[in-house]
Amino acid sequence: MTTRAQVRGVGHYLPKRVVPNSEFETTIDTSDEWIRSRSGIERRHFAADDETTSDMATAAATRALDMAGLAAQEIDAIIVATSTPDLTFPSVATMVQAKLGMTKGFAFDVQAVCAGFVFALANANALIISGQANRVIVIGAETFSRIMDWNDRTTSVLFGDGAGALVLEAADGTGTNTDRGILATDLNSDGRHKDILYVDGGVSTQSTGHLRMQGKEVFRHAVEKLASTAHTALDKVGLTGDDIDWIVPHQANLRIIKSTAQKMGVGLDRVVLTVQDHGNTSAASIPLALSVGVERGQIKPGNLIVTEAIGGGLAWGAVVLRW
Ligand code: UT7
Predict the structure, then answer these.
(1) Domains and CATH numbers, the chain
(2) Is 114 a catalytic residue?
(3) 243: which residues sit within 8 A by CB, 6+ positions away?
(4) How many whole angstroms from 40 Cα to the centroid of ligand 1?
(5) What is the pLDDT of residues 110-131, one digit of tens each?
(6) Going by CA atoms, what residue is nearest to atom 44 of ligand 1?
(7) Which of 11, 157, 272, 284 could potentially form a cystine with 293 if both were Cys, beta carbons 3.0 to 4.6 Å apart?
């Protein structure tokens, strides 16, 4: 018998304010046409001034718990993937724990920027299969609007805010790739690429800072590394692109998503796309897309799903799971 981390519930939260591309045309030298054609983004949501990452994370977690039919007290651990915490400390995860009314278990944040949710899922899987936790809420939540330089047209038009959450639970599997739950993970990072995607501030440099990105360079790495990490994860369990029902990619750029799907031999009709509506929500983008994919009736029980993401670090990886 093999222990598998299976999905019991999923949910998401998007802030009320929707910002169409046209809104940027009044403040910077850009156009709806440029943003759509270069990134695939049409609109994004921005958090209200008094809305924080932990608020959005809690809302998404509450919806995932509802779908799972579980109370917060029945959860053993919360992992939040974020690069935009409410405070330097404590972790967003402990804030979510308190807001959910959960008084036992443990909670911590994972910071791997846009790849954060993939890293958090892999960690949740490790906790479950090693017997350290039975039920884990894994959340991706971001307020990237707080770290935008609104005068920088190369970055400010690309990002958005939001949160998504999964409830995972230990279940018995057969040990084969037909099991439901997380089947394989592949994590990577290479710190030599810090300068192509970073925030030029932080606690020990005494400022908040703004996101800086050499878009073309990040694009080049993304196109090369995403298909490769997804193939590595699939190889580990003897699966190929043909077996995939849905790729649920990090939603950074439609051109990157198309190129990765093509390299994996998967048609765009088997890719969950939300980039047009959410922009790049960093660690929140994959759980948001999983939740929207279920809501749309795309993702169904038993489907084989591959998630993949790359972001600052660089950090990148993939998870293969059967819904
Ligand atoms: O989630 C973390 C990972 N992040 C990513 O995966 C993002 C990866 N990179 C990208 O998605 C793309 O590189 C971008 C969407 C950021 C940019 O697309 P690109 O096709 O690589 O454009 P570029 O940076 O080469 O810029 C082309 C031109 C430049 O003008 P010149 O030098 O050719 O005269 C830019 O200055 O477009 C200009 N430009 C803009 N024009 C209008 C850059 N931003 C804008 C803009 N509006 N907002």
Answers:
(1) 2-173 (3.40.47.10), 181-322 (3.40.47.10)
(2) yes
(3) 177, 234, 304
(4) 12
(5) 999 999 999 999 999 999 999 9
(6) 154
(7) 272
